[in-house]
Amino acid sequence: MSTTRRVVRRRMLTLLLAGVAAIGTVFGFSTPAFAVSHASATSQLSAAGISWTSSGGCSDRNRSNCTSFEGIRQATIDGIITFKRASGCAITITGGTETGHASGTYSHWNGYKVDISKTTCVANWITSKYTYMGYISGWGYQYKAPSGNLYTDEGNHWDILYYTCGC
Fold first, then answer.
1. Where are the alpha helices (DSSP H) in 27-142?
2. Residue of 74, 154, 58 lying closest to 111 (CA atoms)
3. Which pTM value belongs to this model?
């Protein structure tokens, strides 16, 4: 087979695959943002100066008293790191992907959410920089970042839903 023919075939295959990917995205069949392991997440969080705590002193995803990052989306890790850098606040994560949280598409289990400790710095940043959305019955006071991410004051912690990696 000639070099020209191979190049044409490769280009046609590339165009075909790009077309299939585009159609899949339009119809909602695109692959989700990738999830990372607990080890990868903790390494990134440590490097960014973000700590975490577990009431059970463990990281088992299947125990509600543990704090696990197994299966967390990379965009969620990037989001909390972006939030820390933008706010300048100390961040302590108290909840990740472990069982025991509400279910749903955009859930802790599916890697979209983290819970963080309430501090004056965090509260001041969220309430002064983000749009107040109101009180969500059964959840708490909710604020929306320009990125679309949601920050909910659930009383003893902030519940953060990261649709994107921006804060």
1. 38-47, 74-87, 120-129
2. 74
3. 0.78
What is the separation, in whole angstroms, between the first and last Cα of the chain?
A: 52
What are the start-end ranges of the E strands in the chain? 35-36, 51-52, 72-73, 92-95, 113-117, 131-136, 140-144, 150-153, 157-161
CA distances from residue 53 to 3, 73, 84, 120, 125 in whole angstroms, order as listed: 59, 19, 16, 18, 22
Cα–Cα separations (whole angstroms), residue 126 to 23, 42, 49, 144, 145: 38, 24, 19, 9, 8
Torsion region of 124: left, alpha or beta (phi above 0 gives left; psi -120 to 50 gives alpha): alpha
Q: What is the per-residue pLDDT for 105?
A: 92
